[in-house]
Design brief:
Chains A, B: It comes from Xylanimonas oleitrophica. Chains A, B: This is DNA-protecting protein DprA. Chains A, B: Pfam families: DNA_processg_A (PF02481). 2 copies of one chain form a homodimer. By secondary structure, chain A is an alpha/beta fold. Helix content of chain A is 43%, strand content 10%. Chains A and B meet through helix 4, helix 7, helix 12, strand 9 and helix 14 of A and helix 4, helix 7, helix 12, strand 9 and helix 14 of B.
């Protein structure tokens, strides 16, 4: 059989080729490329195809269990690495037929985009935590320095079928994160994703949309204008080459990139089976902090968030400060402590508060009576009355004491 | 000085006396009564008062730190047990003056109530976990067997300033718990408490209101009719005798009874400084499971619940089944696993789903083309097509395959 019509030894072309040959997250391909390099792995594949016989390269260890977990149904039953590899080869070879990454790179070039390879200083290093499941390359439109964009970043994800509550909270969250210098990373989908990108843009922040299909396709079509603006204020990213369709499996695979690329993932609104939950669980497995925004228990749109909270996967996040705390630098980005409104009796010690409570709402009382009502000694009562007088909460009336008007319960004023 | 006009050796009268002499949660009194018995402690107090000199009874250990924490400002500076005890005596003696528990027992009798003492089989044993802070007695109206009521119980508490959301959720929760045979315990206050009692009553369940003041006072007045119904379907309970006013301090102290008496505490709605949070934190310290119901992050009424979730004090609870699971018997009361709606492609393995995704929305494709699009081998594609055909998701069209109408994305149908 004939070889492809391009230089298979070119590392860039070879990486681009693998991003088309293997489905995202194919860990057998990942292990092979890690072992031989993209070009070496491609040469090996061509050789194996031509020979019609699969022999594992020296020293390659393919974990058959992981290969099965990566979605290869034919490998699921095999018990040896070679069988996993052989099964993978049958998945890859049909795509060798019309393989030509130069064509896809030309499409990328037309959009002004960049093909990023692992090892590039602009490569977002968080992706390395995916191990054999890491992408072979990233097709990027917009700002190519994803390492800089991801250094201070939060994934804000959620349901396509968002409620106005979820959209409101997302907008607050994304704008607040942008204000704090965080890149908002999301999936470019309708609903929560779109609001996250839009609010980040409106706040002048950087935002990154990680696509399930090719970056030449502004999918979904209805978000075309929004995604074009994302290119101008951040980046559109995909691990599949231009022209690739956003299949369902690729959405799930894409979610691992969002989880791995960012410092934390916050799910704003998600029903039971929302894809956003897979992003959250993936982030948790990658030891990234995960936040979930609670909502009404009567809304199915928050049910997935509540499940993440129940499962202990996520921390409860109610505003941008708390989201920033998840993703940020310890100390620098700590959310402020909450304080309620300050009441009249705040800061009083227990005895003083007890004497204030013991003062009658109407009329006055002598200190001896207050000892009995408050359950305190006379010196303690007299001390407390002094404090209350200074605070303007009690007034002396001859030998008796009364509440000052401002210390009366609201209903008695 | 003269002794009181009642039989101080009567354990019932002595316990009743201590429930008036010491403020709820006074751990010095608790330690003294635990050491000498209520009658012995009362005799000791009378003796000390008459002698004008405090000497600790043999073998009594009063933890000065705990005494200070229990709210005695005068004891806060003392470093020895005797000084803590001396300070406590000055708190208690003013109330010796008009002490007569027989009068308060007569009031209780008029309401048909019961004075429960520790050790009574009807005493709710959970209170024993309060140690020296346990109540000396419980003044009960209604069903006196609190042990039976508390055996399967959940505290449902929350803000007085409830929202219609909080009230709705409380009603669902309390009714669902009543349906499952749980006693709903709350504080009889306006807002969430009142809804919890009312919904439990409406569902035919048992409910207990733990009051901060005496059980003769149906406080707050606006809940009078409701509390009267609670007496008929459960109990009204207080640790302070009839006639006692519901001071602010007593609300906080009362919360510890709710927390200790029940198997779990669920906070439905609470602002930052709601008393319901103190109940929850107390329950957590007593190693009782705590639940918090999330709500809109835009509602201050849920802010306290979210804080409990953030602090890891509470588990996220969204319905009665989950509340029952917190409080119930392992296995018996487990909340059901959640399932989302079942989709067309549910239960398909990864390869089959990939082939379904690869089938064009319009027109048909041959298996060879599907291998390239799905990234699978030909045998895998053919196997998947067979499964899809059986499931009615794909149709053969000569040598090509098309999606069945029901497998088309909604927008393409």
């Amino acid at each position: 059989m004939s070889g492809p019509g391009f230089d298979v030894d070119d590392p860039l072309l070879a990486a681009a080729a693998w991003s088309r040959l293997a489905e995202p997250g194919d860990e057998v391909a990942g292990a092979l490329v890690a072992h031989l390099g993209a070009a070496g792995a491609l040469a090996w594949l061509l050789e194996v195809r031509d020979a019609g016989l699969v022999e594992a390269p020296d020293g390659l260890l393919v974990d058959a269990g992981r290969a099965a977990a990566s979605g290869s149904a034919t490998a699921a039953g095999s018990t040896t690495a070679v069988r996993a590899l052989a099964a993978a080869v049958t998945r890859w070879t049909p795509r060798l037929e019309d393989l030509d990454p130069r064509r896809e790179l030309r499409v990328l070039e037309h959009t002004g985009g960049t093909l990023l390879l692992p090892g590039d200083p602009r490569w977002p290093r968080g992706l390395d935590d995916l191990g054999a499941g890491a992408p072979f390359a990233l097709w990027v439109r917009g700002e190519a320095d994803l390492a800089a964009l991801a250094a201070r970043s939060v994934a804000v994800v959620g349901a396509r079928a968002s409620t106005s509550y979820g959209e409101h909270v997302t907008a607050e969250l994304a704008a607040g994160l942008a204000d704090r210098g965080f890149t908002v990373v999301s999936g470019g989908a309708y609903g929560i994703d779109a609001v996250a990108h839009r609010a980040s843009l409106a706040a002048g922040g950087a935002t990154v949309a990680v696509m399930a299909g090719g970056v030449d396709r502004m999918y979904p079509q209805g978000n075309h204008a929004l995604l074009a603006r994302v290119v101008g204020a951040g980046a559109l990213v995909a691990e599949v080459p231009p022209g690739s369709a956003p299949f369902k499996q690729r959405f799930l695979a894409r979610n691992r990139l969002i989880a791995a690329m960012t410092r934390a993932t916050v799910v704003v609104e998600a029903a039971w089976r929302s894809g956003a939950l897979s992003t959250a669980r993936r982030a948790a497995r990658l030891l990234r902090p995960v936040g979930a925004v609670p909502g009404p228990v009567t809304s199915m749109g928050s049910a997935g968030c509540h499940q993440l909270l129940r499962d202990g996967v996520a921390t409860c996040v109610t505003d941008a400060a708390e989201a920033a705390e998840l993703a940020g630098t310890l100390g620098e980005d700590a959310a402020p402590e909450r304080d309620g409104p300050v009441g009249e009796a705040d800061g009083l010690d227990a005895a003083t508060r007890a004497v204030l409570d013991a003062l009658p709402v109407r009329g006055a009382a002598d200190p001896a009576a207050l000892t009995r009502v408050a359950g305190l000694s006379l010196p303690a009562v007299l001390g407390a009355l002094g404090v209350l007088e200074v605070r303007g909460l009690a007034e002396q009336d001859g030998a008796r004491w009364r509440r000052a008007r401002r210390a009366l319960p609201a209903r008695a004023r």
